[in-house]
Amino acid sequence: MSEFPKQFVPDSEKNKEWCEKNIDGIISQLEQNNSEGSVSDYDKDVRNYRLYNGDLIYDDYSYVTEQYNMPSPATMGNYPLSKNKIDLICNEDLSRPLDKSVFAVNQDAAIRKEQFKVSLIANDLLKEINSELENSYGMELDMDNKDFPIPDDIDRFMRFEYKEVIEESIKDGLDYLAERYQMKKVFHEGMRDLLVTGKEFYKIYIKDGDPFFRRVDPRTFVYDKSIESDFIEDAQWAGEERWLSVNEILDEYRDELEDEDVRELEDMRQSTTENLDRWNNKHNWVEIDNYKSVKIRVVSAEWKSIKTIRVKVSENKHNPEHPFHKVVGEKYKKRKGDVIDTKHVDDIWEGTKIGGKILVRCRRRPNQVRSVDDAGTTSLSYVGVVFNHTTGKCTSLMDILRHVQMLYNIVMYHIELALARSGGKAVVYDVSQMPSNIGMDMQEVMYHLKNDGIIPINTRDEGGDTASFNQFQQIDFTLSQSVQQLINLKMMLEQTAGQISGVSPQREGAVEQYEYVGNVQRSVVQSSISTGAWNYSHGMVKKQVMEKLANLMKIAWAGGKKAAYIFGDAGYKMLNILPEVALNDYGIFMGDSGKDDALKTQVQQMSQAALQSGTISLLDALKVLKADTMTEAQVILEQGLDAMKKEQSNMQEQQQAMQQQQAEAEQAKIQAETELKRMDIEGRIQVAQINAEARIQAQEIASDASRDMDDVREKNKLTVEKVKADFSSQQKEKDNEHQIKMESRKSVEKK
């Protein structure tokens, strides 16, 4: 077994030979892992995947099928009891959206967000003062982000809705990569690895100028990991084994291969025994697959080394508080007055061995992502999880179901065996009773038995002696009652598999006819909780993958990136990555998929009830139904409720205004009617007064008998005309006032 060389050595000693020793050390770990009788998980993982795929290992069932060294009339088969449950969990995850929120997590980004929040709070406090100053004095205060609309709930806005431009840019980049590399499909395969083997791994790196990731087969992957964590992101070394064709090797490594290496690979296309012996030597490096194609073993390795950085600190005469810093090599000789600051940082190296002979990419790994706030740390390009590994033993769902699956196959085998043995009822026939003396053979006897239901016999032999006769016996070879017992055992195993896996029949769609809807929903929710640990581990790995991809964008797209791609039902979407993405570190938040599924169902039900009661609008209810995540549904409901409250408040204000207008109109109507009555009374009083004055004057005229009648008539005529003129004038004034009041009343009523 090869040992790893020292890592705390100068760069001058980290040559090709040093790299090969590191690679060989990881190869020895792989070979130990894959060796027969190894205590590793390799053999278990292979057996689990064979069982999942229905590829039976018949030696496991030989104690049932090979009795008395005789062949069995039945065939041992695989019935996918465990596979169906694993596929259900995987397909549920496949149907979920890639719920992701991107956050800039470095110190500068946190300061920017806090400053923006403070500016919103300040603007909210000063907006009334600013409005008064503008109206009164024609001036306004100088406020930060004054053109940004102030949200009703600033805390909620900053928590759920506010995103910096660079954060939205990174999210668009992840959407672009998800569509380009079919991210959901790759994660689906990884989820299956987790449930079958208890391990899930990915490799993230830059390929063709873009961040790239791929699934790593857990059966051919070795790593060094802390026992205190289920995740391998802080591993010290890792290696993977792949079996590639010559064309695949040339496509991936052509730029690093020497001409001699290419000729050697081309020779391997000829799958001769001589070539195989020459390449394999002591180890298995070349093989012929089932399609008679040559496959070559390729081992890629990564390990964490230590790099020593020497920084010369020089005096800055213009600004003594900020001296100059310059990185110097290990050969730099310290001069008088120099201050050398030595730092040790993580440094990732890599290398690949092809066919046991060809070495490529033996180098310091390019594109190492380092934190803006902590440049001394970095990590391998691999991420993954080992489920329940804190005890030193990995456990998968297939491990839990394996024994039940094998018993299930055995029960189904015995049911098939019972069917093979069934043959109806048979008669035990004494051949001495053959009626040969009447010229019948066995074929004729069987004919009469089947068609006539009669077997003729002769109890006397040819010598005349009476032969003994025992009644014919009947043996029942029809399907026995034991089959029902086997069927009951089969159903018991199905129930047991559901209980230990956490996948209930209701979750699989098996609902009894009279089962209440509420009970079914509770059963489904409880089942989702039971498998929540698998969803959590898988979700954390997805989060790590996307965080690595997001932070790789800082390097791959440092100068920006523009592209157009198809994004779901939204059609074409433009990608525009800004160069500023390189100035930040990024974290990814992902919801708890299992928990969110249950809550989302409840929220959708409540939104339907809220729609019926008028609490939310139809549009908001539709948005909740289409929401991908609980966070999105929560924001939609909160915004909808706020809008509904504002609408209800506006409606109340309008109703109050209308009620006030109606009251004013009614009051005006009453006043107008009162005024008309008053004017009518006043008119009648005036007419009465005029009539009274006329009568008085007439009496005065009549009593003046001494006056000349002509004078009297003339006087009376003048008096009457005057009275009429005065009355006419007064009446016109009254009519004008009445007309004005009536027009005023009509105007009020129209309003």
Distance between the termini: 100 Å
Number of strands: 16
Content of β-strand: 15-25%
> How confident overall, as mean pLDDT?
76
Fraction of residues in H or I helices: 40-55%
- Low-confidence residue ranges: none
Structural class: alpha+beta
Q: What global shape is seen?
A: flat
Discrete helix count: 20
* Rg over alpha carbons: 48 Å
**Mind describing the biggest β-sheet?**
7 strands, antiparallel
Mind sketching the topology for me?
Blueprint: H1 16-34, H2 42-52, H3 62-65, H4 81-95, E1 101-104, H5 107-137, H6 154-161, H7 165-180, H8 183-197, E2 199-207, E3 210-216, E4 221-223, E5 237-244, H9 246-253, H10 259-267, H11 273-280, E6 286-288, E7 294-314, E8 324-328, E9 339-354, E10 358-364, E11 382-386, H12 397-421, E12 424-428, H13 442-451, E13 473-477, H14 482-501, H15 517-530, H16 532-556, E14 561-566, E15 572-577, E16 586-589, H17 593-613, H18 618-626, H19 630-703, H20 709-750
Antiparallel strand pairs: 1-16, 2-3, 2-11, 4-5, 5-7, 6-7, 7-8, 7-9, 9-10, 12-13, 14-15
Helix pairs in contact: 4-8, 4-12, 7-16, 12-14, 15-17, 17-18, 18-19, 19-20
How would you describe this protein?
The protein is α+β, with helices and mostly antiparallel strands. Among the domains are: 9-36 and 236-379, no CATH class; 423-461 and 470-478, no CATH class; 660-750. It is built from 20 helices and 16 strands. The strands form five sheets. Strands 4, 5, 6, 7, 8, 9 and 10 form a seven-stranded antiparallel beta sheet that branches. The protein has a three-stranded antiparallel beta sheet with strand order 3-2-11. Strands 1-16 form a two-stranded antiparallel ribbon. α7 (165-180) crosses α16 (532-556), α17 packs antiparallel against α18 and α18 packs antiparallel against α19.
